[in-house]
Specification:
Elements: E1 4-8, H1 9-23, E2 27-31, H2 33-37, H3 41-51, E3 55-60, H4 61-69, E4 75-80, H5 83-87, H6 90-96, E5 100-103, H7 106-114, E6 120-124, H8 139-151, E7 156-161, H9 173-191, E8 198-200, H10 204-209, E9 217-220, E10 243-248, E11 251-255, E12 260-261, E13 267-268, E14 273-278, E15 295-298, E16 301-306, E17 314-317, E18 328-332, H11 342-349, H12 353-363, E19 368-372
Parallel strand pairs: 1-19, 2-3, 2-9, 3-4, 4-5, 5-6, 6-7, 7-8
Antiparallel strand pairs: 1-10, 10-18, 11-14, 12-13, 14-17, 15-16, 16-17
Pathway: Amino-acid biosynthesis; D-alanine biosynthesis; D-alanine from L-alanine: step 1/1
Family: Belongs to the alanine racemase family.
Catalytic activity: L-alanine = D-alanine
Length: about 375
């Protein structure tokens, strides 16, 4: 075997199907930005559609066009448009391909309208994340301009949306504040004459933990891939992690007491032991912050990483055993066979599971991505 990322498409279908049942009558939008959080954008979108996702969400215009080129003809929402998208014709292609494109400003709204006949446009209001979206002070002007375009049949305003900043902390006061600001923005839009097809506010954590925020659509990214969007708060829904990362052991050998492992000798053997070389490193997605912190699994037994994570390899403590070269090593997976999970790695590295899976799939050119179907294979 070679180092690989194994993605179970059946797990994605199952997760989306579970979320569809949970949030009904709201519809589900599965987010597949950043190459499907590392799982593969096109394949993840197809699996999500198979699980009942009515919408697919992407960040960039090129991502939306890639889905269209791959044959996805369902509803797609894109929320990051750049001046280059206007200049190189990508925005016009997206409009022609019936992609819902998001506007944050009057200027960008006018550019979208000028890019094609009667485009599908969604408006985003910034309710407190201070990222994308119209500032509250600018929202009335954007809503009014959108209403003018719609009344003149120059655009279809299909949605109004926003995004929580703290939905993974259900008791955080920002959640109520943002929700009230969103309600106020909807009232302003209605007063301007807008009647959008869909309203959406909830991401994965809010979709699960804050039912009052579901509206017409919920945007679920991480939960679609079976990972917990709010560790410590989320009920067990039976979601199944879809990604497993595996590699063969390249070498095992004995080291004496007092020997150091890897750069900087940040780990010194207290006793004689054996170590194994796993041919993946931070160049493949293993966080360097995982040095002396993360674990892998060999034959269902967890083995700690010793020393610093290198660009192409990590060293693990085999506890005296000498496993032969080629022995399969599971870096992380669903956790059903004793292996660490992406969440385990995230906790060890002081980050979130979003980053763990995304950096593997989106950054590594050396790991083969292999798809399986747990319902059939």
């Amino acid at each position: 075997m070679r180092p690989e990322i194994v993605v179970d498409l059946a797990a994605i279908r199952h997760n989306v199907r579970t979320l569809v049942g949970l949030v009904a009558p709201a519809s589900v939008m599965t987010v597949v930005k950043a190459d499907g959080y590392g799982h593969g954008m096109v394949e993840a979108a197809r699996a999500a559609r198979g699980g009942g996702a009515e919408w697919i969400g992407v960040a960039t215009v090129p991502e939306a066009l890639r889905l269209r080129d791959a044959g996805d003809d369902g509803r797609i929402l894109c929320w990051l448009t750049l001046p280059e998208d206007v200049e190189d014709g990508s925005l016009a292609r997206a409009v022609e391909s019936d992609v819902d494109v998001t506007a944050y400003t009057v200027e960008r709204l006018d550019q979208i309208v000028a890019s094609g006949a009667n485009p599908r446009v969604q408006l985003k209001v910034d309710t407190g994340l201070s990222r994308g979206g119209a500032a509250l002070a600018d929202w009335p002007a954007l809503a009014q301009r959108a209403a003018e375009h719609q009344q003149a049949a120059r655009a279809r305003i299909t949605g109004i949306w926003s995004h929580f900043s703290c939905s993974d902390e259900p008791d955080h006061p920002a959640n109520d504040l943002q929700h009230e600001r969103y309600r106020a923005a909807l009232r302003t839009a209605e007063e301007a004459g807008l009647r959008p097809d869909v309203r959406h506010l909830a991401n994965s954590a809010a979709a699960i933990l804050r039912p009052q925020s579901r509206y017409d659509v919920v945007r679920v990214g991480l939960a679609s891939y079976g990972l917990d969007p709010a560790p410590g708060h989320t009920p067990d829904l039976g979601l199944r992690p879809a990604m497993t990362v595996r590699a063969p052991l390249a070498l095992s050998k004995r080291i004496d007491r007092g020997e150091g492992v890897s750069y900087g000798r940040t780990w010194i053997a207290d006793d004689a032991t054996t170590v194994g070389l796993v041919p993946v490193g931070y160049g493949d997605g293993v966080p360097r912050h995982g040095s002396n912190a993360i674990e892998v699994a060999i034959d269902g037994v967890r083995r700690p990483v010793r020393g610093r994570v290198c660009m192409d390899q990590v060293v693990v403590d085999l506890g005296g055993e000498l496993a032969p070269a080629g022995t399969p090593v599971t870096l992380f997976g669903p956790g059903a066979h004793g292996e660490p999970t992406a969440q385990d790695w995230a906790q060890a590295c002081g980050t979130i599971s979003y980053e763990i899976v995304t950096r593997f799939g989106a950054s590594s050119a050396r790991l083969v991505r292999r798809y399986v179907d747990g319902d059939r294979d």
